[in-house]
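The data are set out underneath:

___
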Amino acid sequence: MNLSTKLLVAAGLLATQAATAQTLALPPPVAAALQTVQPAALEAHVRYLADDRLRGRLPGTPGYQLAVDYVADQFKKIGVQPAGDKGTFTQTVRLRRAFVEPGAALSYQPASGPAQPLAYGTAITVYPSPGQPAVAVADAPLVFAGYGISAPELKYDDYAGIDAKGKIVVLTRQPVRQFGDNERQYFGDLRTVLETAARHGAVGVLLAAAHADAKPLEFPKGVVSALGPDGQVGVSRSYALGSAQLVGSISAATLQQLFAGATSDTAKALSALRGGRAASLPLPGRLSARYRSRYQDVDSYNVVGKITGSDPVLKNEYVVHSAHLDHLGVGAPINGDSIFNGAHDNATGVASVLEIANLYAGLKQRPRRSILFVLVTGEEMGLIGSTYFAKYPTVPKTALVADVNTDMPTLIAPLLAVVPLGADHSSLMTEVKRAADYLKLDVEPDPEPTQNRFIRSDQYSFVVQGVPALHIKYGNKTADGKNNLSETVQQWRALTYHKPQDNFTGGTFDWAAGAKYVQFNFLVSYQVAQAVKRPTWNKGDFFGVRFGK
């Protein structure tokens, strides 16, 4: 045997060993239980949760309460233990919907000449403040700070060379281009932008529309936050605790107005930003604002159940299965229907978690770690319920080791491949690959990285608290070999997503694919629950470095 042949044989052995290391060997009872997932059970859950009687499951309504009661009842039937507040299946989340009262007064004082009123609704609007009923900013200086990003570690800082303390920071909401997907998603998130401004001492933030013809944002349905256990705002995606008081939205024309007399103009500044260069500068005018917010507070609920693990030590750690229980309620009719039933978004996700719980409840030999099943409120309002649970969990926060989230798996075709959003940030990718190999599924990268899907669903709430998390979506593989499922999904979205047409009656579902989806998610969490070590962030990973402990 010559040297080349020996090297080829050695390489083959190494490949075989690597493949063997990735092979998932289930205990026979677990493998048998996996085959008991019933497509009809998924169908029954979705049929109930997407029924018109639930009126679109809007948090704080009787319809949402019916969904809460249904999930709790299902947990009781299969033997899942309560893990909410005070021995119940629920965790109370006090939601606050804030509205801007009529009569907001906003004016701009240029460097010379009289003050100019800013027309509300066309030139400027303001975000209602959930923490300050009255907001008043008088004659505040202005600075332009580009995207509002401060990332010295990436050699980029919009706040370098400017003083934002006591000033209103003016920002563009044009998409960030110069960073990788992870950095772009994090730094472009409104919550990050507002927290960064507050950290630099700004008294306000004005967000300029990304397109020349776009109007300032308005909030006829208000903006939702959640009050923490202390009664203060604990969860919000549009309010930053700190010095920032005013948060407003301005048109492109108003941005040009604020630049009048500055040392640069909007065209040059925005062009520099698109080229990856900071373009921050002081603006010559001042702004005054005075407005009030009113509140509607209502209790909603996360539903929390658990299966206690078998290991005397590891049972005190938890693997989380999460999905959002809420949807959009009732709205303006579309093609004669006004109930946003949310059959796919996210009754299918809730049904999946219920059947995963059923699998765990049926095991005579439980996994080492405990499993938490968390069906959250207010996802459609800005990840409110999951953020609340991850920040104020009903178990010790340090005991959360991983989150496997399910949000609109889009069960409309056979499941042949998966996209594990977020798994590439941590060791969870190992469990994903083993589960995929076991079920003969392909693993594919995110086909839509610009959609920011990783930070747009409930898994991100756990990531922010340092917990490795993922969200399993469909891949692109099709049985005919065309591998163009994303085209079908995009067509479905255009006709169905966030519309009353996302209904059980007349909807498109592949319940057999749903059963395989349940099996896959179960296999991922089962491996984590059985492992000696908890999942870890990949060395140097952006989210792991920023949030990992």
